[in-house]
Write a structure and sequence with these properties.
Layout: H1 12-19, E1 21-27, E2 39-45, H2 52-58, H3 62-70, H4 82-95, H5 98-116, H6 120-135
Antiparallel strand pairs: 1-2
Length: about 150
């Protein structure tokens, strides 16, 4: 029953704001040939401000991020189907606003660092550009090494 059918029932986004989590059914990859993947209801949660440093460390590792969002042990996400893993990530990042909050947290952290040590962000930008340039394919000028017949 939707909240349109029952105006006293809170909307989904209101529930998330109050509960700080969304329940979702995840499916595990089958272990044996005969065994179907089992399912479990898990809570994908909104991370607290004190968890942003850990989120920052896991953000490039989807399995670790999913485990953080669901308060599950290391290795848990590896047993999920790809669809379930992607669903957990999408709920945690977008629907619960973890990615948006993290982005603001990173911006505030950079601003504090720049205030404490002026010029830090310029140095980091130059270093990052050097790393990117060193990994980019070189543009060829007019000279090319061409094997002769």
């Amino acid at each position: 029953m939707s909240n349109e059918d029952n105006p006293k029932q809170p909307a989904a986004d209101e529930l998330v704001a109050v509960l700080g989590s969304i329940e979702v059914e995840v499916e595990y990859r089958p272990v044996g040939k005969e065994e179907k993947g089992k399912k479990e209801l898990v809570k994908v949660r909104e991370l607290g401000a004190d968890e942003m440093l850990r989120y920052n460390a896991t953000i490039d590792f989807e399995a670790s991020t999913a485990e953080l969002f669901c308060s599950k042990p290391n290795g848990w996400a590896d047993s999920l189907t790809r669809e379930s893993l992607l669903q957990v990530i999408a709920l945690g990042e977008k629907d619960l606003g973890n990615l948006k909050y993290w982005s603001g947290w990173r911006t505030r952290q950079a601003a504090r660092t720049e205030k404490l040590v002026p010029g830090t962000m310029d140095v980091l930008e130059i270093a990052l550009k050097k790393i990117i340039d060193s990994r980019s394919p070189k543009q060829s000028g007019g000279d090319r090494d061409v094997a002769s017949d």
